[in-house]
């Protein structure tokens, strides 16, 4: 009894398989004959709808198909339709159909008059001889075929529309990247005139239009208060990102509705509610699958599109998460819809005994877990948990989808294999990066030392034996692995804060010096490097003043990390211990800030890591801009430590100004110490700071931000306000991590 139920269930799905790939209209006629004959039992065999091999192996069925085609179809329709049927038989049954030409020349003229005609009421007849559908049954078969293929045609067309949309978005991004790159390459070093940098500004129509687009679309966040307050439960995208995502979501939803024809007495599914249910479920499943390659494209760290478009990984992460969310929603519609349909037909429980059904359920559950575990609060609080779930369930999803789609004989594999290829290539490139930069210098990985001071709430991770022949980009970030742990496969992204190449005259014994001695050497090198820098009219720093000691084995690269939970918390317990790490990178794109007359960097907390290296890079230029650094921090001890180390080489520089805002309640009412930077209590008034710098700026100004969402929103809002006013050109640049 159970076997019979399974056969009935598989018979229903074999009917769906036949319509996976839509056919051309020239093939409708022969397909209509097949549809009209699919319920007939020939010679005691099961009907074709229950046994897909029957149309290829039963001579009675084949003769009936040929009679129908010869009666109702033109020669062109017969050639096209039988060609499709022949290819299907080779795939399904491993054999070709007999010659239709021989049948038409010999058998058809002599026997057509004696062939039994069957009507719609006799469509489920049992016979031991060939039959010919009458005109009414053939027309119903044609209408049923047309309706099914119309729906399938829309399914496949809409998947290409989704790819076309992202293709257009990426092309626009690439064009913009090329334009910006050319602009940066053409821009000479700013001219120094009486100590000021002058930029020739354009008031052309194109420039005004670009300014309007920036302040209306590119700059603002999708939503949030003007005072910078953003919800803590989500990472708010920019307005442009939100519009792109919203358009894509709407496309997926709208694509669920067109292209359905309901046929009274449809031979594939007589009830109209069943017809509509099948069409909607198939559409949802196809669109969900179409999103799979898109999800993987936007998830890859080594995606060349990141460089080609110049977009940040955070932007791609927004696209990745939203395409995954809409795909999951569509998959739930697909699964829920078919559950309802099978419940109506009394075979829901039987469905769970069939491989493709329960594998489909596993796929839907996997997608739901992936989406649920990737919400902002989970990523923020339990990143390690998120990482493990994401990797494991992504693998489960692809495997489950493959088994779910096996019944379709590879028709849908074109959605799965690109995702597998992208995943494999990305992993290969990650491993290659790690091997080249970490394992080649030392099979155990590069050496690292962590310093931790509870009063400063800061872990300083110094890495040596690394980057010997590698150009280090300001603001670049790396994924850090600790291979000595059980969970050594986990990686966490950190921005490289600073790097130092010791004096080449250092003795070999310095390699074993303490961290304190190395830090003193580091400070001395930086101070010596900038001791003669006025950076005004008379003197500028040149590249010759920078010691070229890249061959030293003691090259030290510093990551500043604020410990939270998981991996960063464990670094606290490695205080003053040497251990080995693997680094994957560098990632990130260069921000062209050197062409601006003034650069205002507003950072919060550990965002200082993105500002330090960029500050040194800017002040090393032949005609350096004026740099103002605004750091919002909790503890003064943290600020003093960074100023005594990483920032010691620029404090007191005439082209550099630094302000610190302490937000911890412990600092309220406490006298502010005499320090070489502006020290304030509370949060900064970003509007006041930017107005002050804009009024002083004689040329263009860049505003850089790296910090929590609230600070980012405040800075964005202030820059948008400046773009509405007359004044120098203002650019907004940011460093966002959205893991």
Automatic annotation (TrEMBL):
Gene3D superfamilies: Nucleotide-binding domain of ferredoxin-NADP reductase (FNR) module (3.40.50.80). Residues 1-19 form the signal peptide. GO terms for biological process: copper ion import; intracellular iron ion homeostasis; iron ion transport. The chain crosses the membrane at residues 160-179, 242-263, 283-301, 322-341, 356-378, 385-405. SUPFAM superfamilies: Ferredoxin reductase-like, C-terminal NADP-linked domain. GO terms for molecular function: ferric-chelate reductase activity. It comes from the Eukaryota. Residues 596-719 form the Ferric reductase NAD binding domain. One of its GO terms (cellular component) is plasma membrane. Keywords: Electron transport, Ion transport, Membrane, Oxidoreductase, Signal, Transmembrane, Transmembrane helix, Transport. InterPro entries: FAD-bd_8, Fe3_Rdtase_TM_dom, Fe_red_NAD-bd_6, Ferric/Cupric_Reductase, FNR_nucleotide-bd. Residues 456-588 form the FAD-binding domain. It is found in: Membrane. It is a multi-pass membrane protein. Residues 284-400 form the Ferric oxidoreductase domain. PANTHER family: FERRIC REDUCTASE TRANSMEMBRANE COMPONENT 3-RELATED (PTHR32361:SF9), FERRIC/CUPRIC REDUCTASE TRANSMEMBRANE COMPONENT (PTHR32361). This is FAD-binding FR-type domain-containing protein. It comes from Ramularia collo-cygni.
């Amino acid at each position: 009894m159970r076997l019979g139920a399974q056969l009935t269930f598989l018979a229903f799905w074999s009917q769906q398989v036949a319509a996976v790939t839509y056919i051309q209209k020239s093939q409708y006629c022969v397909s209509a004959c097949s549809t009209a004959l699919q319920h007939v039992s020939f010679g005691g065999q099961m009907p074709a709808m229950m046994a897909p091999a029957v149309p290829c192996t039963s001579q009675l069925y084949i003769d009936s198909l040929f009679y129908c085609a010869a009666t109702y179809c033109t020669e062109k329709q017969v050639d096209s339709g039988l060609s499709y049927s022949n290819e299907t038989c080779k795939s399904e049954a491993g054999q070709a159909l007999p010659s239709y030409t021989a049948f038409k020349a010999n058998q058809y003229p002599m026997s057509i008059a004696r062939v039994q005609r069957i009507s719609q009421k006799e469509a489920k007849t049992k016979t031991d001889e060939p039959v010919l559908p009458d005109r009414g049954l053939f027309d119903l078969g044609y209408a049923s075929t047309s309706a099914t293929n119309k729906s399938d045609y829309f399914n496949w067309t809409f998947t290409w529309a989704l790819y076309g949309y992202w293709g257009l978005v990426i092309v626009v991004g690439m064009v913009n990247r090329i334009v910006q790159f050319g602009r940066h390459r053409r821009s000479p070093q700013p001219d120094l005139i009486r100590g000021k940098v002058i930029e020739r500004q354009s008031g052309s129509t194109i420039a005004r239009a670009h300014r309007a687009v920036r302040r209306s679309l590119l700059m603002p966040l999708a939503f949030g208060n003007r005072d910078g307050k953003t919800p803590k439960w989500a990472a708010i995208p920019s307005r442009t990102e939100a519009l792109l995502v919203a358009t894509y979501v709407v496309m997926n939803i709208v694509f669920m509705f067109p292209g359905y024809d309901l046929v009274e007495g449809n031979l594939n599914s007589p009830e109209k509610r069943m017809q509509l249910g099948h069409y909607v479920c198939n559409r949802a499943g196809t669109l969900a699958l179409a999103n799979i390659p898109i999800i993987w494209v936007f998830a890859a760290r080594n995606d060349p599109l990141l460089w080609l478009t110049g977009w940040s990984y955070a932007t791609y992460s927004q696209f990745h998460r939203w395409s995954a969310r809409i795909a999951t929603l569509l998959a739930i519609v697909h699964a829920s819809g078919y559950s309802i349909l099978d419940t109506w037909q009394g075979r829901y429980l039987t469905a769970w005994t069939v491989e493709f059904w329960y594998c489909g359920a596993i796929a839907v559950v996997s997608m739901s877990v992936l989406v649920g575990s990737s919400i902002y609060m989970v990523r923020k609080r339990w990143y390690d948990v998120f990482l493990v779930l994401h990797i494991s369930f992504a693998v489960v999803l692809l495997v489950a989808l493959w088994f779910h789609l096996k019944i379709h004989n590879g028709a849908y594999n074109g959605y799965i294999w690109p995702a597998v290829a992208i995943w494999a290539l990305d992993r290969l490139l990650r491993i290659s990066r790690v091997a080249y930069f970490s394992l080649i210098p030392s099979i155990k990985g590069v050496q690292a030392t962590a310093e931790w001071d509870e009063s400063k709430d800061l872990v300083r991770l110094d890495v040596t034996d690394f980057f010997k022949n590698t150009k280090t980009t300001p603001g670049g970030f790396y994924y850090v692995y600790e291979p000595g742990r059980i969970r050594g496969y986990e990686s966490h992204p950190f921005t490289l804060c600073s790097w130092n190449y010791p004096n080449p005259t250092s003795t070999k014994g310095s390699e074993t010096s303490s961290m304190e001695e190395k830090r003193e050497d580091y400070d001395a090198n930086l101070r010596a490097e900038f001791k003669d820098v006025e950076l005004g009219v008379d003197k500028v720093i040149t590249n010759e003043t920078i010691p070229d000691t890249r061959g030293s084995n003691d090259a030290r690269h510093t990551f500043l990390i604020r410990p939270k939970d998981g991996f960063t918390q464990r670094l606290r317990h490695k205080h003053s211990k040497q251990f080995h790490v693997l680094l994957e990178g560098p990632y990130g794109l260069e921000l062209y800030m050197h062409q601006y007359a003034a650069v205002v960097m507003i950072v919060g907390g550990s965002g200082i890591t993105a500002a330090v290296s960029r500050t040194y890079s800017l002040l090393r230029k032949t005609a350096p801009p004026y740099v103002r650094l605004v750091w919002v921090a909790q503890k003064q001890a943290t600020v003093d430590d960074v100023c005594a180390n990483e920032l010691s080489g620029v404090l007191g520089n005439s082209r550099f100004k630094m302000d610190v805002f302490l937000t911890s309640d412990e600092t309220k009412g406490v006298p502010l110490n005499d320090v070489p930077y502006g020290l304030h209590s509370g949060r900064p008034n970003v509007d006041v700071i930017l107005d002050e710098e804009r009024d002083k700026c004689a040329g263009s100004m860049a505003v850089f931000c790296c910090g929590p969402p609230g600070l980012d929103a405040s800075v964005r809002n202030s820059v948008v306000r400046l773009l509405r006013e007359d004044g120098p050109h203002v650019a907004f640049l940011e460093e966002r991590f959205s893991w």
